[in-house]
Every structure is written in C-alpha cells, then in structure tokens.
C-alpha cells in the first residue's frame, strides 16, 4: 500500500482484503467463520461461580439491608395506599401551583384525575411509593458521588468510568445479581431504580460544579470561606440549575426502572398490570395502564423540569387553598365511603379500544402482514443471514445461486472501481465491503472481519489507543461463547440505528427548514422521550404481535428521537455570521444548507447518532420481552432463572457492544469538532 | 505618596515565580541553579513548562494605588492571583505588612482574607443565588457576624457605591455597571487594608467605565487603601495609578510613575503603549527643561513647575526663544525651549 493513501482508504482496503479472504476460504476453514468451540472460555460459568461466591458472602448483609429498607417502603406504601385520593390529588395540584402556577396545577389535577378514574389508583400508589423511597436514595448518593468526584480530582476519571458503565449495562442485567442478593420482592425494584437513577444526578452535580464561574469560586475564597463553606454556601447553590436538571433526570430514570422492575413481580404495581394484561393479550387494558404510566411520567417530568427553570414566586394562599380543598373533599369521601377502585370509568373505553384494534387488525390484517413480511423479507432477513440464505422461492420468488452472487459482486466491483478511479479509494472499498456484508449477512460475518473492521474504524477515528481498546473488548466477547448472540444483537440494533439515522435525519432536516414541521414534531419527540421504555411495547404488540419486526419497530420508535433532535439542533444553530457570509456570497437556501449548515452541524449530528445507538441498545434488552434473539434474550432468560453468570456476562457483552459503538462514533465526532476548530 | 515612603511597604513581592507544568517547582530550582537572568525562563520553556510569572519584584506602599498593566497573556492576572494566593506560586515571597503570606497556614490565610484582603473581579463573580445585600454581607457572614450587623454594614457600603434602594435586587436584575458596584461593595464590606482589583472595569462600556473610574478615585481618596489594580488599558493605568508596573511575557519590564512611563520608556515595548497616549496630559514642563538656563530670555509666558506640556505649549504657541520656568513662589528654576514642548508631544512613528 502506498503511503499516499489516506487513513480511511488504508483501513478500508485492509478490511476488504480480510473480508475477501474470509469469504473465499470460509468454506475450507470452519474456524474462520465461527470461533471454534474448543477455544471458547466458559466465562459464563466462571462468572457465575465467582460472582455467585462473592454474592453469597454479602447475602446476609444485603438481606439485612433489604429487611431494613422494607420498613420505610411499607410505611410510604401504606401511607399512600391509605391516604384518601382527594388528599393526594389536592396535594399534587397544590404542588403544581407552587412550582408553576395554573398550568402545572391543571396538569397535576387532570393527570391524577385521570388516574383516579382509570381504576388503577391502588396500583399507581404502589408504583409511586417505590419512586418516593428510591428517589431520595438516588439523589443523596448521586450528590455525594458528584461532590466526591469534584473534590478529589484523582477519583474523577474512575467515577466517570463507573457512571458510564452503570448507564451502559442494560437494566435487566443488573436486576439478576440484585435478585440473588436481595431476594424477590419490591425492595429489589427499589434498589435497582436507585442504582439506575443515581448516575444522571451524579453527572449533573459534577457538571454543575465544574461550570461554576471561576470568579464566583474565587470570590468565595477571597471572602474567607472555608472549603466546606465555599462548597455548600456558594458553589452548590450557584450550580442549582444544572443540579435541578439532574433531579429531573433522576426522577424519570427511577420511574422508568420501577416500571421495568415489575418483570420480577412480587408487587402489585402498575408495571405489573401492564405486563399481565399484555401477556393475556388484553391490549385495551394494557393500553389504559400504559396511559396511566405515561400520565405519571408527564406529570413528574414537567413538574421537576420546571424546577430547573427560573420561575416566578406563586401565591402561597392559593397553594394552601388547593391543599385544603383536597383535604376537605377527602374528609367528605371518607365519611361518604367513596372508593375509586370501583370506578374504572374507562373500562368501557378499554373494551372499545380492544374491539377497535381487533376489528382493525381483522380488516387490515393482510395489509399489516404484508408490511411486516416485506420489511422482514427484503430488509431485516437479508441483513441478518445474507442474501445468499435469505433469497428463497418462499420469500423473493427465486433461489439465490452462485451466478446471482457473481452478478451482484460484479456490479458492486464496477461501482467500486469507478469510485476508486475517481480518486475515492476508501469509498470504493466500502462499497465492496457493504456488498460482501449483505451477501454474507451480519449475523454470519466471519469473526476476523468484525474484529479487524472495528479495529480499523477505531484506528481511523481515534488512533491506536482506541484500536487496542476495541479489539480487546470485542475479543473478550468472542472467546466468551456469546459471539453469535452478540452478532444477532448487533444486527438488530444496527438495522434499527440505520433506519433511525435515515428517517430521523430526514425528519430533523425537515424540522430545520420548516418551523411548522418542528411545531408538530417537537411535542411528539417530547412525549416519546418522557414515556418509560416499557410502554413502547404496547402499541407495537397491538398491531404486529410478538416477533422480531415488533421489536425492531419498538427500538426505532424509541431511538429515533435523539437523531431528530440533534440533527435539527445542529442545522439550526449555525452562527448567524456564517449564514450571512454565505448569503452575501450568493448562496441559495439549499446551497447554504448543504455547503455551510451541514458541515458545521456534522459533530452535533454524530453525537445524535451516538445517542441513538445507545438508546437502541437500551431498548434492545427491553424488546426481549416481545421476542428477539441475541444477548437481550439471554439477559432476560437469566433473570427468569436467577442465573447470575449468564446475566452478568451477557449484560457485559451488551455493554461492550454499546461502549465500542459509543467510542467509535465519539471519536469521529471529536475529529470533526477539531477540524472545525470548535 | 511621599509620606508613605518612610513606613514599611504594605505589600512586598520578592523573586516571585509561577511556573505551570509537571514538577514545576523542581524544574525551577534546577534552572535557577544552572542559569541566570532570562536564561532561566528559556530553560523552563525548553522543558515544556510555562513560566507565567517570572521573577517579579516590587513593593506597594501603604495607601498607594499600584497598577499592573499588560496585554492579555502577559501574566498579570496570574500575578495578582499569586499575591492573593488564589493560586500557589512556585517560588518567591509575598509579604503583606511584613508577614509572608505564602508561608501562612490555611487557617491563617482564611483569617487574613476575612479581615485584611478584599478583591474585585473582572466579571464581577457575584453569587447568583443571593440578593445584593447578601452578596455584600457574605464576607461578614464568613467572619461570623450576625444577620442584623451584616445587613447594617452591607447597607453602608451599598450606599458608598451609590446603589441604595437596590439592596434586595438579584444580580441578574442589574446592569453591568451596577453589578460591578456590588462587587466593589462586597470587597469593601470587611474594610480591608489591602484591595485587589482584577480588571474591574474592563467588561464595562466606555461611558460607564469612565464614570466608575472617577467614583473609584473618590472612594480611594477617602479610604486610602493599599491597592493592586490590574488593567490592560494604558489610559486607565495612567489616569488612576500612583505607580505603574508594565508586564510582558510574565516579566515586569518597567515600574514607574505615569510620567516616567510616558516620557522615559525603558524599551520599545513600553514606548509602543504610550505611543497613542496624549503625553501632554501626563507629563510636566520639568521633563523638557534645559540643562542650563540661557541668559537671554526675551519672553515670559508664565510657565510654572508642575504645568502639563499641553498647557505650557498653549502659552508659547508663537515663541521661538527659550522661556523661563518659575516655581510656585515665582523663583526662576529653569528654562524650556518651546520647540522641545512640541517635540515631546509628537506621537512617535513606529
């Protein structure tokens, strides 16, 4: 290879050579395609033994802790369960007024009113009790971790790595060891949600403290404050806005996790209700329960979100008045013996939704099936097992033969040669690579191609250090015996991410050029980001039943939001001067868009892609509930069997995939930012 | 400030170095042992270290307004942070009223800051979550003063800086000029002897800046603090200073009165600063007096000692012969060639 080649071209050509070799020799040498079983390390068993032994040591302590925690848990749960509903509604409405006046008070009133009328009051209060106990735990530990990382700079790197891991390890994965440690019951959900919700708080505390203006810090020093006075009287209050964002994220994460934790059961909460009705295929009821969750999420999100914004002081009298009104109605309802559990006012609606969905799927079943099958046959399946295996008389109407392969590669080679001839060698090699990948299928890619390919990407995006990290991490997955499942996960999340990138990118572009479009898209994005992961499964299931396509749709629905947001944000925040310079040079609207805005937005859009990837991996595990193969399924199975070894290794493998993807994309984003001098 | 000359200096800085980088202190010691003068800094730079302040030596007399002037990156902000020990200097000594504060314990340092030192910041450094009165009262709170006492003293200082009536406002509700008034009030709340001001007026627009400079001079005229004042603006330095130190690349290149800086710059760098300055307003006739008094002086336009060049030149516009200069009592003390007056005012062509 001549030295004049760019990094990208060198890497692409190298990977192409490896891929071609593997394709040609794969038939003769089995070990080139699948990692030989003889060389597989029984990591799952080892992990099971080590962690199992480790856990059994801590088990008594953990059980004691669990026992201790069950008291506040039960008190709060009893309190919320016994509190007359008008009192709770009145308190939330009063709180809403105190935070944000009429708007939030109305949100609180109608939101909780809906919950009362839905007939899920008791279940909702059980869920709320879990949140109420787990959030203070998460807030305090998050605050402590954030302050620690800030005060002891040597610990900062370690703490940040830990936070990264806590957030990339899929939620189900650490439920398993927690289950073994703490035993079945709501306390596991409580602890899991505290663990899951602490990192965003810690991150925002650290970020907020770091962003306090140096002069404010110095002013506190020069006023003669001790370190503790500086921290608690000046720096933390000055960082309030950022910390409040942390509180908001912490609350949302806790709610999301509490609902996910319902899969381990043992607590009659609203998440369990969704799961139960979903399993019974009572989609109307599941939909209603899901709506209750969404209402909770929106009320909690908007109220805590408003805390981070500058707000006007509200009239205290109205706040107390609302509270008093709630209490008065509560007294009346207790005297009159009115109980909301019997209401279930929307049961009729639920039944009608059920009937409606039933009728719809019956009427349009053929259309829905056609849609599903087309996407499966012409999109997902070839991606997964390659054209060579996916093209069958049953699916495409003919059988893929060696001649087809030859013609297919021939066309790809012509395009690649053309590109190479035009001086774009890297692009040419990538076209050839994609053709090879499509023919073989992602789930059947020979392992040297994946590892060398990822390593090469790492080299282009972040240099040797990143290559080393990527190769070592993927190597661990390879020898652990989870490789095939990892490839399956890679394929499904890859397919979703590509779809999200294309569709989300276009939607973001549309929202950037048309404020009208953004006015419509924005609330939808807000809503999608507020809904706990779990709820995404309901509508998908309603129309497409259990299966890979449903999982794919649920992942796309959830993961598309950051792509839209970041694309629009990147495209619309180009400095005004640059736009004016472009206009002064005579550039039209679309010329400005593609020549100025898009390159400037590239790092931001890459960050959006990065988020989309992480979201997709997070959802992949949840989607295991409705039928996916791969690591997600393993993690879910491990949870059911309390198999710590499998749960942790599969969770770690998942985290590794997410981490590798994250570092690669971050590397490219960083490189673009540097190139633009940002 | 001639009366201050006799007493001990308020601040005395000796051999102060601030070097950034790995193992800076050891590297500096080695470099100082092996080299001398500018070679020390060059040696450090060669090792990849950044000597931000290089061997600073100066004194600030009691009641003196000492201005440190330099462009951005010249090390002036680092220097003032070394003197106030907001950063730990690599080497040297800073004596405040005879006490080396670089050797002071953490406790002693907090005590000094609570009673003796006050500081004003370029971007004000106001606490966003506190009202004006709470901001101003914060140093008193650190001293342990009660709520009532804090409020009373805060109101006094707030009135001193002309912000009465705004004491319950929050920083975000104030204009830039008002914010800096709060910053000044806060730094004066504990009535410190030593007053550090780090580019206090640089972030303000020109009109407000001039207004605050004048008020600052008024306040200083009554309070007589010992001041270290940082600026990048030569006009500001000349207007305010008793003495000026000019910094370049971490080094103090010249220390002198405004007049010395303008009329006798030690090198081209200093001269470059004063190039565009109206020298006539900062220099007096003494600076261009002839060595010998000529015998023949036909005209006497009435020049006096201490008269600025501008005024003197206006008086002898049409004169070509040397003219006499008298002191306040009318005694002949020297002579000036009118052409020299004009020449001294000439802006140098670079």
TrEMBL record, chain A:
Membrane topology, from the record: Multi-pass membrane protein
One of the GO BP terms on file: choline transport
ABC transmembrane type-1 domain sequence ranges: 124-304, 486-665
Record field: transmembrane: 97-121, 128-152, 172-197, 250-267, 282-300, 320-338, 402-421, 433-460, 466-483, 490-513, 533-561, 613-638, 644-665
Sorted UniProt keywords: Cell membrane, Membrane, Transmembrane, Transmembrane helix, Transport
Entry GO MF terms: amine transmembrane transporter activity; carnitine transmembrane transporter activity
GO cellular component, one term: ATP-binding cassette (ABC) transporter complex
Family of this protein: Belongs to the binding-protein-dependent transport system permease family.
PANTHER family, sorted: GLYCINE BETAINE/PROLINE BETAINE TRANSPORT SYSTEM PERMEASE PROTEIN PROW, GLYCINE BETAINE_PROLINE BETAINE TRANSPORT SYSTEM PERMEASE PROTEIN PROW
Protein name: Glycine betaine/proline transport system permease protein
UniProtKB/TrEMBL annotation, chain B:
Pfam families linked to this entry: ABC_tran
Catalytic activity, as annotated: a quaternary ammonium(out) + ATP + H2O = a quaternary ammonium(in) + ADP + phosphate + H(+)
SUPFAM superfamilies: P-loop containing nucleoside triphosphate hydrolases (SSF52540)
GO biological process: one example: response to osmotic stress
Subcellular location(s) of the protein: Cell inner membrane
This protein's UniProt keywords: ATP-binding, Cell inner membrane, Cell membrane, Membrane, Nucleotide-binding, Transport
Domain ABC transporter residues, every copy: 28-274
Broadest EC class assigned to this enzyme: translocase
Subunit and partners: The complex is probably composed of two ATP-binding proteins, two transmembrane proteins and a solute-binding protein. The complex is probably composed of two ATP-binding proteins (TmoW), two transmembrane proteins (TmoV) and a solute-binding protein (TmoX).
The protein's name in its UniProt record: Quaternary amine transport ATP-binding protein
């Amino acid at each position: 290879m001549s030295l004049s080649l760019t990094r990208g071209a060198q890497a692409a050509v190298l990977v192409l050579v490896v891929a071609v070799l593997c394709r040609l020799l794969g038939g003769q040498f089995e070990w080139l395609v699948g990692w030989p079983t003889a060389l597989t390390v029984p990591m799952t068993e080892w992990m099971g033994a080590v962690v199992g032994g480790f856990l059994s040591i801590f088990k008594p302590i953990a059980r004691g802790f669990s026992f201790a925690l069950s008291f506040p848990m039960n008190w709060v749960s009893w309190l919320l369960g016994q509190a007359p509903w008008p009192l709770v509604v009145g308190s939330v409405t009063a709180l809403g007024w105190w935070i944000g006046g009429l708007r939030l008070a109305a949100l609180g009133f109608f939101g909780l009113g809906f919950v009362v009328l839905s007939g899920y009051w008791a279940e909702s209060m059980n869920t709320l009790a879990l949140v109420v106990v787990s959030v203070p735990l998460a807030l305090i530990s998050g605050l402590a971790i954030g302050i620690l990382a800030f005060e002891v700079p040597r610990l900062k790197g370690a703490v940040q790595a830990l936070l990264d891991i806590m957030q990339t390890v899929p939620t189900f994965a650490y439920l398993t060891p927690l289950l073994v440690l703490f035993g079945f019951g709501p306390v596991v959900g409580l602890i899991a949600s505290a663990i899951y919700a602490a990192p965003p708080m810690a991150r925002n505390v650290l970020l907020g403290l770091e962003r306090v203006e140096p002069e404010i810090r110095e002013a506190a020093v020069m006023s003669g404050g001790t370190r503790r006075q500086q921290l608690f009287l000046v720096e933390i209050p000055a960082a309030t806005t950022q910390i409040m964002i942390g509180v908001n994220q912490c609350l949302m994460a806790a709610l999301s996790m509490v609902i996910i934790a319902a899969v381990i059961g043992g607590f009659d909460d609203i998440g369990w209700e969704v799961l139960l009705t979903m399993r019974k295929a009572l989609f109307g009821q599941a939909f209603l329960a899901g709506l209750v969750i969404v209402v909770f999420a929106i009320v909690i999100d908007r109220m805590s979100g408003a805390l981070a914004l500058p707000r006007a002081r509200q009239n205290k009298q109205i706040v107390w008045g609302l509270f008093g009104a709630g209490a008065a109605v509560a007294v009346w309802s207790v005297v009159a013996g009115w109980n909301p559990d019997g209401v279930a006012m929307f049961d009729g609606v639920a039944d009608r939704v059920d009937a409606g969905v039933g009728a719809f799927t019956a009427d349009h079943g053929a259309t829905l099936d056609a849609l599903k099958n087309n996407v499966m046959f012409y999109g997902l399946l070839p991606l997964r097992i390659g054209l060579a295996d996916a093209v069958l008389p049953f699916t495409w109407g003919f059988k893929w033969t060696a001649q087809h392969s030859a013609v297919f590669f021939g066309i790809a080679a012509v395009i690649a040669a053309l590109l190479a001839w035009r001086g774009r060698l890297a692009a040419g090699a990538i076209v050839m690579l994609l053709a090879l990948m499509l023919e073989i299928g992602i789930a059947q890619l020979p392992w040297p191609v994946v590892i060398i390919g990822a390593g090469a990407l790492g080299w282009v995006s972040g240099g040797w250090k990143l290559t080393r990290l990527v190769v070592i991490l993927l190597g661990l997955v390879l020898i652990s015996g989870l490789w095939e499942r990892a490839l399956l996960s890679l394929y499904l999340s890859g397919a979703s991410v590509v779809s999200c990138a294309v569709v989300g990118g276009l939607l973001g572009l549309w929202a950037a050029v048309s404020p009208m479009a953004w006015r419509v898209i924005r609330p939808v994005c807000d809503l999608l980001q507020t809904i706990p992961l779990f709820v995404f499964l309901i509508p998908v299931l309603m129309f497409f039943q259990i299966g890979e396509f449903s999982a794919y749709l649920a992942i796309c629905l959830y993961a598309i939001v950051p792509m839209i947001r970041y694309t629009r944000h990147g495209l619309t925040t180009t400095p005004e001067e640059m736009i004016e310079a472009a206009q002064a040079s005579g550039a039209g609207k679309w010329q400005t868009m593609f020549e100025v805005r898009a390159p400037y937005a590239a790092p931001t859009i890459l960050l959006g892609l990065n988020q989309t990837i992480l979201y997709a991996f997070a959802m992949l595990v949840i989607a295991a509930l409705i039928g996916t193969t791969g690591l997600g399924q393993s993690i879910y199975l491990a949870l059911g069997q309390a198999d710590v070894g499998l749960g942790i290794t599969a969770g770690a493998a998942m985290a590794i995939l997410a981490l590798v993807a994250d570092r690669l994309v971050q590397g490219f984003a960083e490189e673009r930012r540097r190139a633009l001098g940002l | 400030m001639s009366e201050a000359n006799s007493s001990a200096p308020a601040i005395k800085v000796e051999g102060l170095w601030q070097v950034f980088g790995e193992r800076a202190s050891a590297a500096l010691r080695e470099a100082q042992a092996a080299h001398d003068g500018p070679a020390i800094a060059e040696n450090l730079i060669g090792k990849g270290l950044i000597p931000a302040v290089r061997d600073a030596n100066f004194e600030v007399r009691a009641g003196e307004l000492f201005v440190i002037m330099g462009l951005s990156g010249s090390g002036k902000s680092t220097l003032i942070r070394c003197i106030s020990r907001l950063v730990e200097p690599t080497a040297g000594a800073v004596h405040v009223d005879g006490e080396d504060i670089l050797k002071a314990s953490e406790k002693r340092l907090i005590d000094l800051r609570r009673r003796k030192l006050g500081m004003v910041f370029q971007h004000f450094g106001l606490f966003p979550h506190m009202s004006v009165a709470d901001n101003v009262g914060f140093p008193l709170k650190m001293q342990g003063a009660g709520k009532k006492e804090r409020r009373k003293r805060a109101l006094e200082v707030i009135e001193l800086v002309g912000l009465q009536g705004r004491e319950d406002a929050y920083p975000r509700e104030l204009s830039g000029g008002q914010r800096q008034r709060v910053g000044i009030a806060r730094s004066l709340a504990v009535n410190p002897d030593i007053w550090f001001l780090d580019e206090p007026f640089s972030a303000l627009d020109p009109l407000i800046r001039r207004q605050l400079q004048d008020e600052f001079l008024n306040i200083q005229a009554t309070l007589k603090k010992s001041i270290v004042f940082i600026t990048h603006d030569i006009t500001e330095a000349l207007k305010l200073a008793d003495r000026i130190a000019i910094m370049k690349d971490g080094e103090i290149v010249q220390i002198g009165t405004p007049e010395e800086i303008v009329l006798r710059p030690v090198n081209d760098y200093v001269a470059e600063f004063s190039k565009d300055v109206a020298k006539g307003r900062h220099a007096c006739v003494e600076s261009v007096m002839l060595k010998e008094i000529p015998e023949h002086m036909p005209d006497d336009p009435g020049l006096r000692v201490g008269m600025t060049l501008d005024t003197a030149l206006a008086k002898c516009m049409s004169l070509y012969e040397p003219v006499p200069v008298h002191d306040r009592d009318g005694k002949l003390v020297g002579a000036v060639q009118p052409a020299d007056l004009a020449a001294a005012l000439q802006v140098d062509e670079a």
